[in-house]
Amino acid sequence: MMPPVWVWVALAAALAQTGRNATQTGLTARLGTLGATNVRFLFGLPFAVLFLWIGARVTGEGVPPLNLASTGFAATGALAQIAATALMLQVMRSQSFGITTAWLKVEPVLVALAGWALLGDPVTLPMLGAIGIAIAGVLILSLRPGTGRQMITGLGPAAMGLLAGLCFGVSAVGFRGGITALDQGGFLIRALTVLVLSLTIQTAVLLVWMAARDRVALRGTFAAWRPSVAAGFLGALASAFWFVGFSLTSAANIRTVALVEVIFALAVSWWVFGQKITRRQALGIVILLAGVALLMRVAP
Fold it and tell me: How far is Cα 17 from Cα 268, in angstroms, rounded to an integer?
């Protein structure tokens, strides 16, 4: 039995995002966290516009007119994603990458509940069970033995990490809400339209903020345009796949399959840096894939 289309879309999104993260690593050291974040939106927007133009040509559909509900959902998602990124970077300053990842990857559960409350997306106990199994696999992958206590000793960072996960969840639900609120167009043209709208909002907000607070990083962003183009393309490509996925099924389904990004990152570390995969990590991969496979069977 072939997996549904949305599974392949989510896997493509996770793979493109892994590439974007690898490309953006060098930019963070060069431009700082805010400058590297700005690259994702500023240099991704032209590619998103190009994708929308190609989508319109391929489908023969015009760009659907925006309405208040779609714009409101998209703006909420765009701003929540900026806030989530800022919170995540703040947590990473005081906590290890593994612990931060563990807090953030509870996101699919939060997405499922938010999608059910705000959009009426179906949530069943088997779905929540499958999501929980996948998250357990991520926790095994991310946390080293003996770090469990560290997750609860600092209530401030823990709360901030969970809040970041919640904001990422709100952003996913906001983007899906923006897509489903459009009155016209097929799934592809609606997804790409909301992608362009969201990136426009995010680019405008960050440009205004950096012009007022960090002009050095802003100038550095434009000066480093050559390496930024690759990061912008991969970021826009990953976002295009995410948004198409959101147009096909609930955000919870997409974000659960997206957990395989942890496996892709591990594969990159093994392939590029020669880091070996431990038995614990192999167990985490098996459990994560089992959760994703179960979700594919029980998702409406």
Answer: 12
Q: What is the pLDDT of residues 253-286, one digit of tens each?
A: 898 888 887 777 777 667 766 667 677 777 877 8
CB 227 within 8 A of CB 38: no
- With both helix axes pointing from N to C terminus, report the angle between 155-180 and 97-104 in degrees, rounded to the nearest 10: 50
Report helix, strand or coil for 271.
Answer: helix
How far apart CA 210 and CA 218 sit, in angstroms, is: 6
- For the chain, what percentages of helix, strand and coil (3-state, to nearest 5) are there? 85, 0, 15
User: What is the distance between the alpha carbons of residues 124 and 87, in angstroms, rounded to a whole number?
Assistant: 30
DSSP 151-211: HHH-HHHHHHHHHHHHHHHHHHHHHHHHHHT-SSS-HHHHHHHHHHHHHHHHHHHHHHHHH
pTM > 0.85: no
Q: Helices (H), strands (E): how many in the chain?
A: 14, 0
